[in-house]
Amino acid sequence: MRARIEDVAKVAGVSPKTVSRVLNNERNVREDTRQRILDAVRSLDYRPHPSARSLAANRSFLVALLYDNPSPSYMMEVQDGVLEACDAQRYSMMLQPLDATAPRFVEQVEKLISERRLDGLILTPPISDHADLLARLREWGVPFACVAPRDRNCAGVVLDERRAACEMVAHLASLGHRRIGHIIGHPDHGASRWRLDGYCDGLEQSGLRYDHRLVVQGHFSFDSGVVATRTMLALASPPTAIFAANDDMAAGVIWAANEAGLTVPRDLSVCGFDDTPMSRQIWPSLTTIHQPCRDMGRIAANQLLRTIRDGEGAMVYAKFALCLRGSTGRVPDRPRRGVSLGTQS
Question: Are residues 261 and 273 located together in one domain of the fold?
Fold first, then answer.
């Protein structure tokens, strides 16, 4: 027969209520008592019925990960981290794509919370920067955690993206590159601003002038990386290196370089940001900035669940690292002139 909570309580020598508090990760239970209960749970192979658990705790044990992000590789990493954290604390997660620019966006989220009885939300860029939604969530008292938000007065996780971008540009300059292009991320994402600022910092640190012709707007998508690269390569004095604000756009840079008959990195160095699995799967492998996207998803979820449990989460700072791979090298011996580009897509 399936073990009951009363059976666990009897084996552990405690009340069923104490067992429930441990299973719901509540505080104020002595560590030796907690361990005794968990040992009893394992020995009896106890699995609480989801409906009974929800009714007893007045919770749904369901959180939603909201996204409006064109980078599937980034979102897959974040999603895996969130799932890992939720699974460890016996929560379920639903993934919800939304259009943050929709006229009734806030009302859509309100309806989602109500209909699904969500215990809380994890917000990714650009939703994590949606001021109206954040204000409404605080007004409603709905727990939430943000991934890479501009406003850091909330629970979640961030990275020093400005510093990371600065270090990448300085690295390119150390290889002899003097004309370094940059493809900006989506204009609605706070990360785009930080990475652009870091690009400018890197130029200044390396004694290089900012040239507006070498800075082109992208949208964090492969196609926008292709279009931006065609624009820069058509210049009379094109860049010898391009730093794209994410890996998807950097992959577009490599595609457009090959389209133009250029070899990476002999003719053009390319680097990105995020260190998604794709960065190690393309050829040449992509020099990029390791943003621990999976860890950041896990941290954000843990801070949300902490907020649900204790009433307050924290903003955690994740660490970055430069990943130097095959797509960057020393500056070409001879400067290239603008190249003639095809119109393939």
Answer: yes
CATH code where residue 45 lies? 1.10.260.40
- For 9, the domain range is 5-49
| Residues constituting the chain | 345
Other Cβ atoms closer than 10 A to 145:
30
What are 218's strand-pairing partners? Answer: none
Give the model's pLDDT for residue 343.
Answer: 42
Is residue 341 in a domain?
A: no
The pTM score is 0.75
Average model confidence (pLDDT) across the chain: 91
Within-domain flag for 66 = yes
Same domain, 172 and 285: yes
Q: Answer yes or no: is 343 within a domain.
A: no
Contact between residue 203 and residue 180 where contact means Cβ atoms under 8 Å apart? yes
DSSP 229-291: HHHHHTSSS--SEEEESSHHHHHHHHHHHHHTT--TTTT-EEE-SB--GGGGTSSSPPBEEE-
**Residue 345 in this model has a pLDDT that exceeds 50:** no
Is the residue at 327 inside a domain?
A: no
Average pLDDT on 294-301 reads 97
Predicted confidence (pLDDT) per residue in 146-169, tens digit: 999 988 889 999 999 999 999 999
